Amino acid sequence: MNELPLAHLIGALSYALDITEGQPPGHCVRCCLIGMRIGRAIGLPEESLWELYYTLLLKDVGCSSNAARICELYLTDDIAFKRDFKWVDGDIFDAITAKRPYRDAVPIDKTLAIMAETVGSALDPGCFDALERVVRVLEADKSTLPPRAA
Q1: Which of 9, 13, 28, 89 has the smallest C-beta neighbourhood within 10 Å, fewest atoms?
Q2: CA distance 83 to 130
Q3: DSSP assignment of the chain, as one string?
Q4: Domains of the chain
Q5: Residue 1: which pLDDT band, with cuts at 50, 70 and 90?
């Protein structure tokens, strides 16, 4: 019998979550890749990086299943909603920069400025600094993240 690696199974589940939870395709994977780079940048030990990897891939299970749908239904901006209720650096970065049915994608510099307003209160300064460094590297090499749907 062929065995399916756990990482492949969880990756497929995270993709299914994107589709069923109203997230742009590849959202969980982009958040995971950004989060892992942040984890490395702040010096997390290898064991913690593995825990972070699986946590980020499955971060939307049961916690935000209705947020995107509710915001879309009421044609409201999910940025404010997520700013108040769901702050994970890579997640909120991906959510803000994603195109939504009711708004265009927010440019990277504006996204970082929005997030910078909460450094020290909602966002850890060290994690935010690491996010900024990671984003600049990813900007230079766009092939390192899954593409967004058109």
Answers
A1: 9
A2: 19
A3: -PPPPHHHHHHHHHHHHHHHTTPPTTHHHHHHHHHHHHHHHTT--HHHHHHHHHHHHTTTTTTSTTHHHHHHHTT--HHHHHHHH---HHHHHHHHHS-BTTBPPPPHHHHHHHHHTTBTTTB-HHHHHHHHHHHHHHHH-GGGSPPPP-
A4: 7-143 (1.10.3210.10)
A5: low
Q: Say which residue the tokens 């064991």 belong to.
A: 47
For residue 54, pLDDT beyond 50: yes
CA distance from start to end of the chain: 38
What CA–CA distance (Å, rounded) separates 53 from 50? Answer: 5
Contacts of 24 (CB under 8 A, 6+ apart): 18, 94, 98, 99, 148, 149
103 beta partners: 100
Task: Please check whether residue 70 is in contact with residue 102, taking contact to mean a CB–CB distance below 8 angstroms.
Answer: no
